[in-house]
Amino acid sequence: MIGFLRGKLVHKSPPFLILDVNGVGYEIEAPMTTFYDLPALNDEIKLHTHLVVREDAHILFGFSAEAERSLFRTLIKVNGVGPKLALTILSGQSALEFHRCIHDNDTQALVRLPGVGKKTAERLVIEMRDRLPELGESTTATFNSLSGESPVSAANPKQEAVSALCALGYKPLDASKMVQNISADDKTCEDIIRLALQGAVR
Predict the structure, then answer these.
(1) Which residues, given as ranges, of the chain have pLDDT below 70?
(2) pTM for the whole structure
(3) Among 21, 59, 90, 198, which is least packed, fewest CB within 10 Å?
């Protein structure tokens, strides 16, 4: 098991990034909460990782905070929730919002996330209620930090945002609608995705 990786960030295109660790490029999938915290390209970062081994692929997931990885690991223990859906949930809601949904039995907010139907939302509420750890002050600050600067070099950040939303499970038409009214002026791809996701879960 690969517990963490420390290396140079050489590529980022949500939800994928590549980390150069001593000359080896690791392709990693990460939630948008991690992308919001990424530094500029070629800077060094440390990511907590979780390796999923399938018959046809080995997929490495990365998280900026260990508590975020813990929540991911808890989510994939829920019946019907795989790594991809767990990544989508973490991208569409902050950990605090997710905790609120579970504690308040707010299945309506959960079903707005792509791939989460009514039955899955109800299962999440039931199975996650006793599994969610209490968030300490430092963890809360980590999860609620969405202001990190993470510029992405892209000729068309809105198009990159649409592609990223599709990779997270949204249909192309829905993804386009989510970003169409967001001004791209002085905004990075991550900025646009964050605003689009905030609008989607209201």
Answers:
(1) 133-155, 200-202
(2) 0.69
(3) 21
